[in-house]
Every structure is written in C-alpha cells, then in structure tokens.
Specification:
The structure holds 2 protein chains of 2 kinds. Chain A is built from 3 helices and 10 strands. By secondary structure, chain A is of the alpha+beta class. In chain A, the strands form 3 sheets. Chain A has a 4-stranded mixed β-sheet, sandwiched between helices. A 4-stranded antiparallel β-sheet of chain A has the order 7-5-9-10, with no helix packed on it. Chain A has a two-stranded antiparallel sheet with strand order 3-4. The longest helix of chain A has 18 residues. Chain A is globular and about 50 Å long. Chain B is an alpha/beta fold. Chain B contains 8 helices and 11 strands. A 5-stranded mixed β-sheet of chain B has the order 6-5-11-8-9. A 4-stranded parallel β-sheet of chain B has the order 1-2-3-4, covered by helices on one side. In chain B, helix 3 packs parallel to helix 4. The longest helix of chain B is centred in the first third of the chain and has 13 residues. Chain B is elongated and about 75 Å long. The chains are: A alpha+beta, B alpha/beta. At the A-B interface, strand 2, strand 5, helix 2, helix 3 and strand 9 of A face helix 6 of B.
C-alpha cells in the first residue's frame, strides 16, 4: 500500500483537519502535526504580519525532496504532508504545516516532522517579509546550501 | 610571456633621450617602425567560434603586465619614437584600467594617434570616457548584421535570471536579462551580474544561485537557456 504524500504551496488558509485526514491510512495509529505560526511578539519586538513569497517551481521540487529525505531517514512513517502557505498572514495564522502519520508514535513520527520543518527552512526557496509597527523588511535566512542539498 | 625588469631599472631609452639623441626603430628593410599594437588582455566578453572555445582557459592575471609595468614599456617605446598605438585584446575594454591606460598613452611625448579595436559591447558606457581620455579612433568588429548569422558566429545569448525577496525589491523587477556566452560558470555569471548591476554587487555576492531548480555553485556550468534564479538564503517555514 502506498502512503499518501501531499506537497503543496497555497495562498489559502491551511486546513489542518483536512491535511490530517488526507495523510492518515487505516494502518496509522499516530499522526504528528507541526505548524509554524506568525508570532506577534518576539522579546520586545512586535510583528504585525508576515508576507511569504516562493520560487514556486523550485519550492515544489524541494518540498518533494524533503519528503523523500524524511522517508529515507524514518523508514517506518507512512503519510507525509508538507504544505507552505504564501501571501500575507496575520499573527496567529499557520504559515506552514508538516504532517506525518505512522503505525505508532514511536515509529519516528515526531522525529520525521521535526526533520521535515528544519529541512524545509534550509532548502525550500520561500522568503518572508516582516511588517512591524515601524516598517517592513525581508527576513534573511543564514543557511548556505552545499552540494547535495 | 613578456617579462620586463623593475620599472626604475628600465632607464636606457630615457637616458638616451636625455643625451639629446633621437633613437628610431627600423626593420630589416630600413623602414621606420613607429606603430605599436598593444594587447591589453586575453579575455573577452564574447566567444566567437573562430576565436575562442566555449570553455576558454585564460591566462591568470598575475601573468599579465600590471598597468604600471605596461606604462613603463609604453614610455620606453615612446622614447624610441613610437607615435601611433592601437589597443587590442582579447577585448581591450574588459581590462579594468583601460580608460586610464588610454590617458597615459595619449599623454606620452610623441603620441600622434591612439586607436582601439573592440567588439563594441561596452562602448555605450565607455565611449565618452575613452574619448575624453584621448582615444581618437575606434574599429568596431561586427561579424554580421544578419542576426541569424551573427548568432551562429557569436554564440552569445540572452539569459533570463529570476529574482526573489530582497533582490527582487532592490532590482525593481522579478527577473532581469543579461547578455552572456552560450555557456559560462556560475562564478562568471555572478561577476557579469555584479558588473551590470553595481548597486547589487554586495547582495549578489552573498546570494544563492539555482540552475534548473537545483542549487548551483561557482564552478558549475550554466547555459543561457537554463532556468536561472538568484535569491537570498531562504527564510521560509516558521522561525
């Protein structure tokens, strides 16, 4: 039985219930859902909103690569969903979701979800522009890809 | 390779001149030789099929005469009554100090004419400074006015480069185009982009290049027809 893989860039709000249903198969007894969220307060800094932009064609290919890497590292997991939202998001809204299903929670579901979001942030070409009360600027990452990424 | 002594030991012609002697150079038939062609570089911004392979290996720049060494040689030639100079290459305009070199030649005591042979690609920006520096004559080499024939001879192409995030905002456009050889390395592409967009050069240096949706590195070869993008380190997901 092939497990579902969902790779998606969307400007629509993320429907976590629908994603959970989509990756869950009758063999699954555990589903881990990670979501990144627009944080409104970082220390003393305020964020009003975030705007996400993607290099769509490459982002879809890199999301698929992340899913493949998750499966090769965590062989017991079943369904995988990697979804990145683009466009403007307000504080509290989910920006990205990584959903992993497995037979049991000890089958690597947590670790695979953690790996998935970390890897997404390294190699999937998506950028965010942060708007604060005093203006907006692009947030620059610090991961420099190497050969094989 | 031309190797010359240190500048201050190359004093023979000027001491001769100081002694009031006029020294002229002649060939075996007694003709006065006073016209000097100077190749400023072996590099070129085109890859014409009859001239350069697509993956030309250029001479390292430390093997070339520095601007100062070149001027020392030219001063010596001037003192031997050379009065007409033609700058060639390679493509002479890709040498960074070309305007200053023209100025120095034009100000040599005997100079009557300074000319250049060029493919013309950089003249839009350089013509006025070169003229002001003393360049009097330009030969522009154009292999064909027929675009199809020209492309066959000069396999250069228009590369489209996608831009994202900060780069897109700073350039004011989601993509830019660049005239490039049919193939070049990612490192050469970065250099060409920085030269075409000096205001972005610092940003370009720390940006990531992708070719056909894969990360690409300076030594990788990119074709003008590839899907090429330039972007800052990614910041997606949730911090």
């Amino acid at each position: 039985m092939t497990a579902p893989t969902i790779i998606r860039l969307t400007s629509d709000p993320l429907d976590l219930n629908a994603l959970q249903a989509a990756v869950t198969t009758p063999r699954d007894g555990a589903v881990v859902i990670f979501t990144g969220t627009v944080r409104g307060v970082t220390g003393t800094e305020q964020t009003v909103k975030l705007e996400y932009e993607a290099y769509t064609e490459m982002a879809l290919e890199k999301l698929r690569q992340v899913a493949d890497e998750m499966r090769s590292r965590f062989a017991l997991i079943h369904g995988v969903a990697l979804v990145q939202r683009v466009g403007v998001m307000q504080v509290g809204e989910p920006t990205a979701a990584v959903v992993v299903s497995a037979g049991h929670r000890s089958d690597g579901a947590f670790e695979a979800a953690r790996y998935g979001i970390d890897r997404l942030k390294q190699i999937v070409p998506v950028w965010k522009k942060e708007t604060r009360p005093d203006g907006s600027s692009w947030v620059e990452g610090d991961y420099v890809p190497t050969r094989g990424d | 390779m031309l190797s010359i002594p240190e500048a201050d030991t190359l004093t023979l012609p000027s001491s001769i001149a100081a002694a009031g002697l006029v020294v002229k150079t002649h060939d075996a038939f007694g003709r006065h030789i006073h016209y000097l062609r100077v190749s400023l570089t072996d590099r070129c911004n085109l890859r014409c099929v009859y001239c350069m392979p697509e993956h030309m290996v250029f001479r390292p720049s430390e093997d070339l005469l520095t601007d100062r060494e070149l001027c020392t040689v030219l001063e010596a030639m001037s003192s031997l009554s050379f009065d007409k100079y033609r700058l060639t290459g390679g493509e002479p305009t890709v040498r960074p100090g070309v305007v200053e070199i023209v100025r120095r030649i034009a100000s040599l005591p005997n100079t009557r004419e300074v000319a250049m042979t060029t493919n013309g690609l950089k003249l839009a920006r350089l013509a006025q400074p070169l003229k002001s520096a003393g360049l009097q004559r330009v030969n522009i080499s154009i292999d064909s006015l027929d675009p199809v024939k020209f492309k066959r001879t000069v396999p250069c192409a228009t590369m489209v480069i996608k831009l994202f995030a900060t780069l897109k905002d700073r350039a004011g456009a989601g993509e830019i185009t660049l005239q490039t050889p049919a193939t070049l390395t990612v490192g050469e592409l970065r250099a060409a982009l920085a030269a075409a967009h000096p205001g972005l050069s610092e940003l370009i240096a720390r940006s990531i290049v992708s070719v056909n949706r894969e990360f690409a590195f300076n030594e990788d070869v990119v074709r003008a027809t590839d899907e090429v993008a330039l972007f800052p380190p990614v910041s997606g997901g949730a911090a």
